[in-house]
Design goal:
Blueprint: E1 2-3, E2 8-14, E3 28-31, E4 34-37, E5 43-50, E6 53-58, E7 64-69, E8 74-77, E9 84-87, E10 94-101, E11 105-108
């Protein structure tokens, strides 16, 4: 992960059957010994390099919608985005470049 005060960039690999972040909103959560808090104006972009999966999001009525994604696809999560996840439902790993601005604050707990 490359992180500055203004952005973060990393390349993730997601195994089949997994998600890099299970259902979440860009607010605040605790994971692996850290508290992660997103700025109110946080936005994120995924660029799918290889592999296939689905981006899923919950509607206002809590129904799940999804869109298939694959190599060359770009996913933009704007500020205050709905609850969502990227799920690898394929048979090979997904490799993706991820950019987020401004970066979330990570505090050890």
């Amino acid at each position: 992960i490359l992180a500055t005060e203004k952005l973060f960039f990393n390349v993730d690999e997601v195994s089949p059957g997994y998600s890099p972040h299970h259902w979440h909103r860009h607010t605040k959560y605790t994971t692996e010994g850290y508290e992660v808090e997103y700025p109110a104006d946080f936005e994120e972009i995924y660029f799918i390099l290889s592999g296939r999966g689905v981006i899923q999001w919950k509607t206002a009525s809590n129904e799940i919608s999804e869109q298939a994604v694959g190599p060359g696809d770009t996913i933009h999560m704007p500020p205050d985005v709905v609850e969502h996840q990227l799920l690898n439902n394929g048979s090979e790993p997904i490799r993706m470049a991820v950019v987020g601005v401004p970066p979330p604050k990570r505090t050890p707990i």
